[in-house]
Amino acid sequence: MKKFPESFLWGGAIAASQADGAWQEGGKGVDTQDLRYFDTKWDKTRRTENRNINMTSEIFTKALAEKEDEHYPFRFGIDFYHTYKEDLALMEEMNMKIFRTSINWARIFPNGDDAEPNEEGLRFYKDLFMECHNRGMKVFATILHYNIPVHLVNEYGGWKNRKTIEFYVNYVETIAKGFGNLVDYWLPFNEINCSRFNPYNGCCIIKDQEKDYISTIFQCAHHQFVANALAIRKIHELLPGSKVGGMIARFTTYPLTCKPEDVMETILEENYKNYFYTDIMARGKYPSYTDRMFDSLKVAIQKVEGDDELLKANTVDFLAFSYYMSMTTTTDVQQEKASGNLVSGNKNPYLEASEWGWQIDPIGLRISLNQMYDRYQLPLFIAENGIGARDVLEEDGSIHDDYRIAYMREHVKQMKEAVSDGVDLLGYTAWGIVDIISCGTIEMSKRYGVIYVDQDETGHGSKKRYKKDSFSWYKKCIDSNGEDL
Ligand code: BG6
């Protein structure tokens, strides 16, 4: 069995909208996540629903006028905007090698189309990234993690408008010049495949305003592929030698049975949910199955001259993905469903699930790493992985999260197997390293961190940070480079 390379990047990840808070400070504009609401009165059975995934004009307009933040957790996050030094100090204590977070576009360009950037926003991220380096951590920066300035939705219709590409590239140029080599790994888009599964966050469109929703979703995806290629070109031009990656949410899918129909269906699902996106970013062209896939979905998109050449000339340096769970596929419509990260699939009788119904499958991570590496032969990065669970803060300040340790241990073991299989794996950033607001269900009680944040659903609490049992486990894992699990 091989060991992890000495250069292996153990780390943790968060996203600006789920952590930063301070939604109206430092010159920041309102962004699309600021408008997603969580109703504390919703009952338990609705918890697994993905709220505001498909935004309506009614909710959007109401949220824009809403001054009370209580039901809008992305507005307060975990106040990372003010606490980042304290949080990074804890990460340094674990000897983390890399920290992944996203830059909030609305902090840099409050409206998205402003002529000049907001200096205070640039300053904030520059200080944050310098703090990471001072504490021995590299920076993995996501340029867009599910939120754009709201003005771009109102004025231009989000990603369906090609103008958004221009504004995005201007934003990329500004931060590439502003942060330069303070960023070690760039990621133009978080989970680019989620434009399909999370259209409000991914495409920034409003469902009832679209005549042909599914075509608009794929039009937005096309604009993002173009924007991704332009971002790669721009960052490479400005920062020679920089590493720019592509990322998907990896929806690992097995055939439920060995019935040939189930196996074929699984191939189609894998293409539709995962490979369509990585094929374009890594191979630089729309895959051969596109026409049939678009026909079956009744999708029509517009490209302009030069788009195909641009995609071909600007492919990613590495591929990243988030991995939480796996699903099964069958043509049998009677099968019991399992819930999951943005998509639902069929239950796998061999797997246990988290309280939120996400099926826990460490071997699925090894499978995914092998599949992705075999297909693209590009270095891989696990940009997100973890278990969302309800943690209990004991009176003495301890949190006994043995379930999280078990989850992380088994996934790290499978990463090691994959490295031994020959996969070129750059690093692992555990998701929500410090507890943050969950993205799908907008809850504080669905926690991923090895660091606990004392805060409830409505943003109340001491906000004090506590080390969970998983904190010392992860430190041990890092210190032994994945040997002492
Ligand atoms: C990923 C997203 O899809 O899943 C994160 O990139 C998100 O933003 C994570 O937080 C976990 O999902 P959730 O809904 O449990 O927060």
Automatic annotation (TrEMBL):
<keyword id="KW-0326">Glycosidase</keyword>
<dbReference type="GO" id="GO:0005829">
    <property type="term" value="C:cytosol"/>
</dbReference>
<keyword id="KW-0378">Hydrolase</keyword>
<dbReference type="InterPro" id="IPR017853">
    <property type="entry name" value="GH"/>
</dbReference>
<dbReference type="InterPro" id="IPR001360">
    <property type="entry name" value="Glyco_hydro_1"/>
</dbReference>
<dbReference type="GO" id="GO:0008422">
    <property type="term" value="F:beta-glucosidase activity"/>
</dbReference>
<protein>
    <submittedName>
        <fullName>6-phospho-beta-glucosidase</fullName>
    </submittedName>
</protein>
<dbReference type="GO" id="GO:0016052">
    <property type="term" value="P:carbohydrate catabolic process"/>
</dbReference>
<dbReference type="Pfam" id="PF00232">
    <property type="entry name" value="Glyco_hydro_1"/>
</dbReference>
<comment type="similarity">
    <text>Belongs to the glycosyl hydrolase 1 family.</text>
</comment>
